[in-house]
Amino acid sequence: MKIEWALNHMPVVASLMNNCKKEKPFEGITISAVLHVTKETAVLVKALKECGARVLLAGSNPLSTQDDVAAALAKDGIEVYAWKGETEEEYFWAIRKIIEDGNPDIVIDDGGDLHVTIHKEYPQLAEKIIGGTEETTTGVIRLKAMEKDGVLKYPVIAVNDALTKFMFDNRYGTGQSTIDGILRATNVLIAGKKVVVAGYGWCGRGIAMRMRGMGARVIVTEVDPLRALEAVHDGFDVMPMDDAAKVGDIFVTATGNINVIRKEHFLKMKNGAILANAGHFNVEIDVKSLEALAVSKRRIRPYVDEYKLPDGRKIYLLAEGRLVNLVAAEGHPSEVMDMSFANQFLSVKYLIENKGKLEPKVYKVPHEIDSEVARRKLNAMGIKIDTLTEEQKRYLESW
Q1: Which residues are annotated as a binding site for NAD(+)?
Q2: CA-CA distance, 177 to 337, in Å (whole number)?
Q3: 20 to 30 A Cα–Cα from 169, which one of 273, 314, 336, 345?
Q4: For the CA atoms of 72, 78, 79, 83, what is the dihedral angle to 10 degrees?
Q5: Cβ neighbours of residue 123 under 8 Å, at least 6 residues apart?
Q6: Tens digit of pLDDT per residue, the chain (399 long)?
Q7: Where are the domains of the chain?
Q8: Terminal CA-CA length for the chain
């Protein structure tokens, strides 16, 4: 039922699936994917299967898998190796399983662990892979580093960098679902709270915007002067984390970097401060330092751990420092994942159609794919737009 609900709210992916059911462009192609196993992901992998692919799926976070969705996909012929609450060892076992059992032609990743594992442990397999895609900012950063170091062995399309992905998924999806996760975990009132958002990329923008919409007084911390300046002009207070730590009630990290909130910040926080992470990996909040500082730790609600410091102050960590929107809630709404996963679907199709023509580099999503996704989404929403006249086209092409 959850998958059916998602499909009903993902008209772009549904239309792509219906268009290619007969021609089956992915016939004979094996796809290994590491994604958050949610109802929206189920729609994507079912679409790939309906269009001819063999699909193997592992989770991209030990705590984000929806077990009922994984079970439903397994019954439907998807080879799923994911369950909620995996250990780190089990998490990487599942990734190796979909590599070894699949011997994939195409790889789809969210975070970069699949790409990195293939390159480090299965270099011969990497040589025969047609190409891959990457769903999130963290993974794209890692892949660009691999390209820079000259170790990337196949072309990868940075789906995260598609306009119809990051401007909507990262901003509106992360903005809404992060608050959803915080509220489900804590049920605190957002209005009147001082919320510190670390990072003003597209995810940070979305979180800050939505927090303000719920009545929070938002503070942004940044290392990039341009983004900091933008946050100021968007009406937010901007200050270093050292200063924000003293006044914040709720802290949300969304940077893709390590130890953004660390020991010196914990020591300055108010009693009752709440910490949440919206970045892909559980490295943005220095949990090890918090564990070392605390004299006691206890779980007081699902996904809420209380750390008591030597002076009696209490700090509350949500979702063990992992993605709060996918651990404590359901992740992004189906409507926004519709565009992200339409980009995934069309990027896989593009890689297959251009087999052997692309160098082992990180590529942007082709503009025609971005435009096609936007057109299909507008059509599904019943929205029409203008088109250029021939005279207008000639005018824009002239100098």
Answers
A1: 136-138, 170, 199-206, 222, 257, 278-280, 325, 332
A2: 12
A3: 273
A4: -30
A5: 153
A6: 899 999 999 999 999 999 998 899 999 999 999 999 999 999 999 999 999 999 999 999 999 999 999 999 999 999 999 999 999 999 999 999 999 999 999 999 999 999 999 999 999 999 999 999 999 999 999 999 999 999 999 999 999 999 999 999 999 999 999 999 999 999 999 999 999 999 999 999 999 999 999 999 999 999 999 999 999 999 999 999 999 999 999 999 999 999 999 999 999 999 999 999 999 999 999 999 999 999 999 999 999 999 999 999 999 999 999 999 999 999 999 999 999 999 999 999 999 999 999 999 999 999 999 999 999 999 999 999 999 999 999 999 999
A7: 2-161+332-380, 174-322
A8: 56
Q: Which residues contact 391 (CB under 8 A, 6 or more apart)?
A: none
Separation between Cα atoms, residue 138 and residue 280, nearest integer Å: 7
Same fold across 2-161+332-380 and 174-322: yes
Q: Which two tokens stand for residue 288?
A: 């090890």
What's domain 2-161+332-380's superfamily in CATH?
A: Adenosylhomocysteinase-like (3.40.50.1480)
CATH number, span 174-322:
3.40.50.720
CA atoms within 13 A on the CB side of 268: 15
Report the alpha-carbon angle 96-82-111, nearest 5: 65
Binding residue ranges: 38, 110, 135-138, 165, 169-170, 199-206, 222, 257, 278-280, 325, 332
Name the binding residues for substrate. 38, 110, 135, 165, 169
Q: What tokens does 273 get?
A: 């401060």
Q: HSE on the CB side for 386, CA within 13 Å?
A: 5
Can you state the angle between helices 113-121 and 88-102, rounded to 10 degrees? 70
E strands within the chain?
Answer: 30-35, 54-59, 79-81, 106-109, 131-134, 156-158, 194-198, 217-221, 237-238, 250-253, 273-277, 296-301, 304-308, 314-318, 362-364
Token representation of residue 8? 């009903």
Query: 3-class SS at 92?
Result: helix
Provide the residue type at 228 as one letter: A
Predicted model pTM:
0.93
